[in-house]
Specification:
- The structure is a homodimer of 154-residue chains.
- By secondary structure, chain A is α+β, with helices and mostly antiparallel strands.
- Chain A folds into two domains: 91 residues, Arc Repressor Mutant, subunit A (Orthogonal Bundle); 43 residues, Dna Ligase, domain 1 (2-Layer Sandwich).
- Chain A has five helices and six strands; from the N terminus they run ααβααββββαβ.
- A three-stranded antiparallel beta sheet of chain A has the order 1-3-2.
- In chain A, a hairpin with a 5-residue loop joins β4 and β5.
- In chain A, α2 packs across α3 and α3 packs across α4.
- At the A-B interface, α5 and β6 of A face α5 and β6 of B.
- The complex binds manganese (II) ion (MN) (2 copies) and zinc ion (2 copies).
- One manganese (II) ion binds next to β2 of chain B.
- Chain A binds a DNA duplex (30 and 30 nucleotides) through α3 and α4.
Chain lengths: 154, 154
DNA sequence: GTCGTTCTTGCGAGGCTATGCAATAACAAC
DNA sequence: GTTGTTATTGCATAGCCTCGCAAGAACGAC
């Protein structure tokens, strides 16, 4: 469903410090969190909350949705994931974000791509200059239609 | 919560043609649709799907959510409303959009502004040329911080 | 006014996400 | 290993939005 974002850097390696990161904050290392991190470590690019629940459930049928969503909140605070909302409003988590970037999503087929600061520069500079508005690229979502998806009517 | 978008032009007047617009397409004029249009005619700027359901329910307790959402779909096809998704992923309907436009929202205070095709031209043209991607300006959401709101952390 | 066609509605169910609460488990200290 | 503290889980519930389906209503024709 979601395309884009080249493979993450170290794969599993990047997650090595997660257990320590949790403990340093007084948070706990539980079997549920370990499973979620294992799945994320094998994911590159984007994943929706629902997809993550599903993949965890494939490995442990007892997986509870709310636990997954709450763990995602924690991981976002630690910087391991970052979320925005896709064109359909659903959560889209970016795993191990290398650099802040915006998302472009097809309203037809749901495919998604990334947009860099460089791509958005002209617009970002215009908003900064004209309105004093500082764009948070991670919270930019551009909806539209990819070449394969004709926008039906209108 | 959402600022911007000056009051709609004619208020009720702008909705006068709605009944005809429906009939010309073979669609029907029902009591449910009339109520929804009445409520929308008294709304200017933005409204979420849930808010609209609530306001309709205030006038007719028998209002059914799915009917409201389906009517919004129809009205969007006729051009009377246009929706995108707010920073929290919920649907945000723009009533009587004068022109298709994108939304800029402050992640700090929630203030929102509009962005026109002209403002986005450079980026839109770039995406069209480079990826064959046709931007739907109404589905563009730009998050960031207004001059008054310091970007907290990270 | 009656009838037939086709659009709409109501209703039920389901997907995605959030939250409160009590029971449980992780961790640190001993 | 036991115990106490407190974070976390499971569960239930709820909100927002979508969809299928069968019953019902709007509309045009007569
Ligand atoms: Mn939508
Ligand atoms: Mn969110
Ligand atoms: Zn597409
Ligand atoms: Zn602000």
């Amino acid at each position: 469903m979601s395309t884009s974002t080249p493979a993450s850097p170290g794969g599993k390696a990047a997650w090595a410090g997660a257990r320590e990161a949790l403990r340093e904050r007084g948070l706990r290392w539980t079997p549920q969190r370990r499973l979620i991190l294992d799945v994320l470590a094998e994911t590159s690019g984007h994943i929706t909350g629902a997809e993550l629940v599903e993949r965890c459930r494939a490995r442990d049928a007892a997986t509870i949705g709310s636990t997954v969503y709450r763990t995602l909140d924690v991981l976002e605070e630690l910087g391991y994931v970052r979320h925005s909302h896709g064109a359909d409003g659903r959560e889209e988590y970016h795993v191990l974000p290398l650099a802040e970037h915006a998302h472009i999503g097809c309203l037809g087929c749901g495919a998604a791509w990334d947009l860099t600061w460089e791509d958005a520069r002209e617009l970002v500079e215009r908003l900064e200059a004209r309105n004093g508005f500082r764009v948070a690229l991670g919270h930019v979502m551009i909806g539209g239609y990819c070449p394969g998806c004709e926008p039906a009517e209108r």
